[in-house]
Design the sequence.
């Protein structure tokens, strides 16, 4: 680094840290702006800081599960007293990654942590990975998400694959064996750990769900599935070229979903328990287990960390408000929302819902994905649904066509008014869920947190 580059780097660190401090002073999170401004002064800032980490970097990417997987992995590392750089708030664009590094450095630009765990947006991997040169890359799954921003899914898969193959030949890949779009990235490489789930009572031998990978990535022939978990995740094979689901080195067996009480499963001889709902969280845990085991952490430490780990912001997060228990879960694409619905209808409870659909830039302007969601599964299970957000009317129309009676639907576009209406209802034994898109998530979460605090205070 020459003198001018060094000067710009130090100036960028000072600018970023000052902006972060001012943001916090004004009550803002400051998760992206400090990094955005610092990168304008020093575009290679992330690389300069990442190269100082004595134990390198782990990247987590994919469509669904990035935040939960990264947080689970960070919780495991915390048990070993490892000091991390971590974008815990889920700011996974290059600006959020830069802010996370700035927060881990001192004013001279010296890093204060040992390793980084970075959740990275799929479209941002090509910008972040060549700078930080991760020793481990976790890829969770690929599904259609925000088509107006990402374009077709093939483009996203290609972008991640090319970044990994062209820039990270030595990185250890932690790949979801059950997703053919992910598994095919490991073909021909020896430094791969696959994770997956065995056939179980929660999947099916046949599936009518929308799925992304109907045709083989190598020859274009139609896959044959012996078992479906959800979407295109399952046990598959190509009868033409022979590509098939790789044998997972980290395999979940004896999976048990226990309504609101959590998830259990076994990996090898170790029993695991999660304080989560939703079958998909088994995959998030497996990714974290595979990465942690690969880095030499013992199973007992991993088991304890995962058992104590609580759902993060808006990921099947629980709020006790009065006598009600309300579950908050971010929804952002068809497969993710389908799995939330599957978790909701698993029990025998009637459901009271608040669904908040926004179409701001961070949510994705195109909301046609709502028509690919299996809302029909809610028939006969709904007591009441409040549709909120900028596209509340569109959500109500979709539910009407899904067979939900109109007298069970209400449109209250304002988020605070919608939440007040939900919490004023007498729910008794119903399952109560708040399902927002991204820009509605944190306003609703803040409001629920205040209601919970108020309930505890009284």
Sequence:
């Amino acid at each position: 680094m020459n003198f001018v580059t060094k000067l710009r780097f130090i100036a960028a660190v000072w600018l970023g840290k000052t902006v972060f401090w001012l943001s916090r002073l004004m009550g803002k999170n400051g998760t992206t702006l400090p990094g955005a401004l610092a990168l304008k002064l020093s575009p290679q800032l992330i690389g300069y800081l990442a190269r100082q980490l004595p134990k390198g970097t782990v990247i987590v990417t994919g469509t669904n599960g990035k935040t939960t997987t990264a947080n689970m992995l960070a919780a495991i590392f915390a048990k070993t007293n490892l000091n991390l750089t971590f974008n815990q708030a889920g700011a996974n664009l290059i600006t959020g990654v830069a802010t996370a590094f700035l927060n881990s450095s001192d004013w001279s630009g010296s890093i204060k942590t040992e390793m980084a765990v970075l959740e990275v947006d799929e479209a941002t991997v090509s910008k972040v990975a060549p700078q930080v040169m991760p020793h481990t890359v976790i890829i969770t799954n690929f599904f259609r998400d925000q088509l107006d921003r990402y374009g077709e899914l093939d483009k996203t898969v290609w972008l991640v694959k090319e970044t990994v193959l062209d820039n990270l030949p030595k990185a250890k890949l932690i790949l979801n064996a059950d997703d053919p779009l992910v598994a095919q990235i490991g073909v021909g490489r020896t430094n791969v750990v696959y994770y997956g789930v065995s056939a179980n009572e929660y999947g099916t031998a046949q599936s009518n769900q929308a799925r992304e990978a109907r045709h083989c990535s190598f020859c274009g022939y139609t896959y044959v599935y012996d078992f479906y978990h959800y979407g295109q995740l399952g046990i598959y094979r190509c009868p033409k070229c022979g590509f098939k689901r790789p044998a997972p080195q980290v395999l979940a067996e004896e999976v048990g979903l226990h309504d609101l009480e959590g998830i259990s499963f076994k990996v090898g001889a170790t029993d695991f328990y999660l304080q989560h709902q939703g079958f998909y969280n088994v995959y998030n845990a497996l990714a974290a287990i595979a990465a942690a085991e690969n880095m030499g952490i013992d199973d007992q430490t991993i088991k304890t960390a995962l058992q104590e780990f609580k759902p993060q912001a808006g990921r099947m997060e629980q709020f006790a408000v009065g006598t009600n228990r309300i579950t908050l879960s971010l929804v952002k694409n068809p497969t993710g929302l389908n799995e939330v619905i599957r978790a909701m209808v698993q029990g025998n409870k009637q459901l009271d819902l608040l669904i908040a659909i926004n179409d701001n830039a961070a949510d994705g302007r195109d909301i046609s994905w709502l028509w690919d969601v299996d809302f029909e599964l809610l028939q006969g299970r709904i007591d009441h649904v409040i549709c909120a957000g900028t596209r509340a009317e569109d959500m109500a129309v979709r539910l009407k066509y899904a067979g939900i009676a109109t007298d069970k639907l209400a449109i209250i576009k304002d988020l605070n008014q919608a939440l007040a209406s939900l919490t004023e209802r007498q729910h008794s034994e119903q399952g109560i869920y708040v399902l927002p898109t991204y820009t509605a998530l944190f306003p609703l979460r803040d409001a629920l947190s205040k209601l919970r605090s108020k309930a505890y205070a009284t």
